[in-house]
Amino acid sequence: MIRSTLTAATVLFCLSAADVSAAGYRDESVEMTTVQALDIPAYMGLWYEIARYPNSFEENCVGVTAEYAQRDDGKIDVVNTCRKGALDGPVEQAEGVARPAGPGKLSVSFVPFLSWLPFLNGDYWVLHVSDGYEMAVVGNPAGSTGWVLARSPEISQEQLDTARQVFSENGYDLTALRMVPQPPE
C-alpha cells in the first residue's frame, strides 16, 4: 500500500483554494441548526464518508474515512484518509486538530501549528446525529462543505433520506450531494 501524508504546504494550498473557489451549496438566508447536546466522547472513533458536497480538497477521493480521538487538553485529533481514484488506490492522509466552538460546532485546522490564525480554521457543524451515534450529518454556514458520515461503509435508504432531509432543512441544494464509493462490508 502506498501511503503519503499531506504536507503543511499542501494543506495550506488546499485550504486557500477551497476558500477562493468553493461553491456554496446552501441558501445562507436559511438558519442552520446544530445538535445542541453533542456527546463528544460518543462522537469519537472511525466514521465512513457516505456522501459529500464536492470540494477541492477531496477531489478524486473514494473510500474516505475520518477518525476522531479526544485529547487530554480538550481538543480532538482528526485523521482524514482518502484513496485516490479507486478503492485500491494510493492512500493519502491529512492530520488536523479540532476544538469545540459551541453547541454542535467544532473548529478544525489541518495546519495545527498555525491554528491560532482564524482563516486557517474551518467550521465543522454537526447538524444531526442519530441515536447511538451511527450516522451524522455535518456542514458549514457557508455551505461550501457537507458530509453524511456513518460508522459502517453503508447506510439504509431511511438513513440517507434522513440525511437529505437535514440538509434540505438547513438550506442545502440536494442536487449537488454526491455518494462516495466505499468498500463493501
In terms of structural class, how would the helical and strand content be classed?
Answer: alpha+beta
Query: CA-to-CA gap between the ends?
Result: 20 Å
Main sheet strand line-up: 2-3-4-5-6-7-8-9
- State the share of residues found in helices, binned by percent: 10-25%
Identify the quaternary structure here.
single chain
Mean pLDDT: 86
- CATH topology heading: Lipocalin
- Main β-sheet description: 8 strands, antiparallel, barrel
The CATH architecture can be given as Beta Barrel
- Count structural domains: 1
What can you see in these coordinates?
- By secondary structure, the protein is α+β, with helices and mostly antiparallel strands.
- It has helices at 8-21, 40-43, 157-169, and strands at 3-5, 45-52, 61-70, 76-84, 91-102, 105-109, 122-129, 135-139, 146-150, 178-179.
- Strand 3 (61-70) and strand 4 (76-84) form a beta hairpin.
- The radius of gyration is 15 Å and the shape is globular.
- Mean pLDDT is 86; it is low at 1-21 and 113-119.
- Pfam families: Lipocalin_2.
- It is found in: Cell outer membrane.
Provide a short characterization of the protein structure:
Involved in the storage or transport of lipids necessary for membrane maintenance under stressful conditions. Displays a binding preference for lysophospholipids. The protein is of the alpha+beta class.
